[in-house]
Design a protein that fits this description.
This protein has 118 residues and is an alpha+beta fold. The protein has one domain (15-110). It is 31% helix and 25% strand. The chain binds zinc ion.
């Protein structure tokens, strides 16, 4: 708590530049968190809202086509498994961003386009 408004401007502007940088980092952090929560709400972000696909071969390309929600870098596929959630067979791709370390899962549901189904 400053007792008075006697905090003068920083010498050389170094402090102000640092404050501006910190503010920019905070903004970026906020944007990153927003992107992460958007990604969780988007298709594939949860097992309740999987991405429908026709072939398991499409999973990896599809998962990798989405950039890291945090830093927008490209990610690596860690694993690709089948999981049963609420009695439904789902596929989950686990992705990791080598740049910022964010891990994310993308959920898929195999759409069976066999005969008899319309
Ligand atoms: Zn990242």
């Amino acid at each position: 708590m400053a007792a008075s408004g006697s905090d003068g401007p920083a010498r050389g502007g170094g402090l102000r530049a640092r404050a501006a940088r910190r503010r920019a980092e905070r903004e970026e952090e906020k944007a990153a968190r927003q992107r992460e929560s958007d990604a969780r709400r988007a298709h594939g972000g949860t097992p309740e809202l999987p991405i429908e696909i026709d072939s398991p071969a499409a999973i990896e390309a599809r998962a990798l086509s989405q950039p890291c929600p945090r830093c927008l870098g490209s990610r690596l596929l860690v694993s690709h498994d089948a999981e049963t959630v609420d009695g439904e067979r789902l596929r989950v791709a686990r992705l990791r961003c080598p740049r910022c370390g964010t891990e994310q899962r993308t959920w898929f549901r195999l759409h069976r386009s066999g005969p008899g189904l319309h």
